[in-house]
Structure formats: structure tokens, C-alpha cells
Amino acid sequence: MSIAEAYDIPVSPLVPPSPPRAPENMTVFGRIKAIRESPIGMWGQRAYEEDIIQGRFLGRSSFILNAPDAIKHVLVDNYENYTRTPVSFRVLRPILGQGLLIAEGRAWKHQRRTLAPAFTPRAVMTLVPHMLAATDETVAKLRAASNAPVDLREAMQRMTLEIAGRTMFSFGMERHGATLRDFVMEYGEHLARPNFLDLLLPLSWPSPQDLSRARFRKRWTAFVGMLMAERRAAGKKAGAPARDLFDLMGEARDPETGQAFTDDQLGDQVATMILAGHETTATALFWALYLLALDPATQEELAREVQGATASGALDLDRLKFTRAVMDETMRLYPPAFLIARAAAGPDTIAGLPIKKKDVILIAPWILHRHEKFWRDPNAFIPSRFMTGTPPDRFAYLPFGVGPRVCIGAHFALVEATLALAKMIGTFRVTLVNKEPVKPIGVVTTQPDRSPMFCITAR
Ligand code: HEM
């Protein structure tokens, strides 16, 4: 029985916007344009129905995997044979340095086991007061401005950036937040989109955009260094418990070698955690608020849950089951990381198909989460599908990836997003000023094509 058949849930009438399916015979230039503008518009109907789609692109074979066994093979059983793609290195290295997200091989193993203790559920619980303080401030600011149209996408970006800053450094982002945001916007808008030469040239040949990226990196690392220096100046009493991720990562030691991070390595981890964490979570929260604005009945159900989970002003995370299901369903329909791409480091066989070195493997949460084989009414917003007691197949639902390279911040993000959504909907009734559809586009993450204005009224 398929996962979809196992559900017996009433169907929500809400089918939120998604791009039309692409024609099956797209030209190479059409595909390059789509990769630059929005890869989620690049896949045809077959991708949402079949197990494996084989293709060719710029002289390499590519495989879109939708079969759970094939995905398990690449992301779990033989993960060491599959590295990030050359274009991911090209686009991410200038902003993430040699941090965990793009490290490979032994360097990655050292970093992952050193950082793991800083992201356990227990460590994340020590960061919750920072998350709550930043969320409460956002809610208070919005309350002061309620009844007027408000850009909740921007509000969520500011809030998650504030949370990233406070959980990292224990200080508010009022002085540096605007500069940090400018860096992120500048990179996202001008340098993160690969162009034709980025896709074509080998990594050892700098593309014209690489020169701009290198200039950006110089300014960016100086800025991160300044933040670290400020945090160090704020100090920490010897023997006092870790206050934030900076303490946790600075005190981290490789359990096998006892090695700590050097200053440069720590700087790359700081940049990685701030950048990998804040935009993804802001995007998930934006889409959750958008979906709830389109679906008032679900919004009211969530508000009732929040009321029941609030005892003497404090929110009980364990009682926010429906809120969590809304986040899960939001990340099914609009997975912030819409694509997990890998390049084969050596030959292999996947589901009987021969794989050559440098072949490209695409595992797309965007496709898997809407695949006809795994979901009933794949395009409909039905949070209760996550409350049946039967979790979806772990290789069909992967907003955070799966296997050894699964998102290290998954628990952090889920706690943050569930608490923030509960606070927002517990405080405000959220509607859209204008019902014009907001379309998702894939630019690093699954972004809305515009920032719609919302109306919020206090409950
Ligand atoms: C809703 C929010 C988030 C989503 C959807 C998300 C998604 C993902 C995905 C899909 C991967 C795996 C990529 C792959 O296998 O190629 C990943 C990796 C990673 N994420 Fe997240 N993430 C989120 C939040 C966070 C947060 C809050 C942090 C840090 C505080 C973080 C840090 C990282 C890092 C460092 C990696 C690389 C792990 C490794 O390669 O070992 N992420 N994330």
C-alpha cells in the first residue's frame, strides 16, 4: 500500500499556487534560463509520476531520483561517492568558506563530529530563551503597527536574522542587522544565481562572476570577523555554562582528535550557521503564514491549540502538535531547500543504471513532496496528514535532507519555527490584503515571486 493510500483524511479545498509543469522537450537554452530564474519551473509532469528520469545536460548525464531505494543509496549507503556539484561550490564557497555545508571528505567528518554536540535537542533547549525574546519583540512591534498592511515576509526575515544573531552571539542585531541583511540580499540577488559560464567552466577556471564573488568574500569575512571580535570582547566567565552557539562552537572539540576550530574555521562556521539557518526558516514561516491566510479554518484551529498550550504566559512546545503539523505540511508544499544536487566522485550503479564519474544526481524535495506515488492530493494543503501517527516515508519527505549530511540545524529550525508560528497566530488573525496568487520561485531557496501585504488584527 502506498503512503497516500494509507491516509484517510478529509480533503482541504485549498490548493495553493505552484508553477505550471514545464514542457517535456525543453531546449538547453530554456533549461539554462530556468536554472537561473527558477529551477522549480523546469520539471515536466513525468518528473512527478516516474521513479527515475534520465537526461543529459551540458555534456553530462543527469538523473532525477524519486525512488526511495535509489535516494537511500545516494544519501545514505554510498554517500561518500556523491559530493556537492561544481556549481554549488562555485556559488556557496565565497559566502560559506570551508564551513560544514560545503566541506567534503575528512574535513567534513572532523567538522560534523565536532559540531554535533552544539545541535543536540538538549543544546538547542538552552537557546530557546534567545528565540523567544526575539519572537516576542517581533510580535510587540507588529502589534504596535497592527490594522495597517504589513510585509510579513520582511518581518519574518528580520526575526529569523535576529534569532540567528542572538543564538550565535547573545547580542541583538539592532546595530549590525541592516548590514548583514544587505550582504545577504546583495549575494542572493547578484551573485548566487549561476550564469552560463558558471555552469560551463571547470571550477579551476574563474568565471567573470567568480571575480565579483571573490571581492564580496573579502568584505564579508571582514564583517564576520568584526562580529566575532565584538562577541569576544563581551567575554565569558571561566567555567560559566555556554550562553550561545559561539560559546558552544568555540568550546567544541573533535571527539577523536581533541582538535578545536582555528579562528578562520570558526568564522566559516559562524557564517554557515547564520546563512544556512535564517533565510530557510524565514521562508518556511512566510509560506506557513501565507497558507494560513488562505485557509482561515486551519488558522482558527491553530489559534485554539495555542490558547490551550499557553499556561501562565509560557508556551508548552510539546502541546503544539497541530502547529508543528502545519509547519511540516508547509515544508512539504514549499520546501525551502527545493533541490539536493550531487556529483558522482566515481563510477557506481543506481537502481541498475550505470553512473559515471561527474554524472549529476538530483534529489528534489520540491518534486518528491508533490509526487503522485507518495501523496494523496499532492498539491492540496492538508496539515492533518502529519497527525495520523504514521510518518511519511523518510525518503519521500525530506525538507532537511537525510543521511549523514542531513541538516544539522533541523531540530533548531523546527523548534524556532513552531514557537514563532504559535506566537504569531496566537496573537494575530492574519489575512491577505490582496488575493492575487503568490507564486513560488527557486532562487537558492523556495522564495515567493513578490512580497504580498498582509493585514493583522490582534485576537
Ligand atoms: C527550515 C529551515 C531549514 C531547512 C529547510 C534546511 C534544509 C537543509 C537541507 C535540505 C540540508 C541538506 C543538504 C544536502 O544534503 O545537500 C541542510 C544542511 C545543513 N543545514 Fe539546514 N535547513 C534549515 C535550517 C538550518 C539551521 C537553523 C541551521 C543552523 C543553525 C542549518 C544548518 C545547516 C548546515 C550546517 C547544513 C550542512 C550539514 C552537512 O553537510 O553536514 N540549517 N539544511
Short summary of the structure?
This protein has helices at 3-6, 28-37, 68-77, 86-96, 105-115, 121-144, 152-169, 177-191, 196-200, 208-234, 245-251, 263-294, 296-308, 321-333, 365-368, 410-427; strands spanning 52-57, 60-65, 82-83, 310-311, 314-315, 340-344, 348-350, 353-355, 360-363, 428-432, 440-443, 445-448, 454-458.
Notes on the protein architecture:
By secondary structure, the chain is an alpha+beta fold. It has a single domain, classed as Cytochrome P450 (Cytochrome p450), CATH 1.10.630.10. Helix content is 48%, strand content 11%. It has 16 helices and 13 strands. It has a 5-stranded mixed sheet. Strands 4-5 form a two-stranded antiparallel sheet. Strands 7-8 form a two-stranded antiparallel sheet. A hairpin with a 2-residue loop joins β4 and β5. α8 packs antiparallel against α10, α10 packs across α12 and α12 packs parallel to α16. The longest helix is centred in the middle third of the chain and has 32 residues. It binds protoporphyrin IX containing FE.
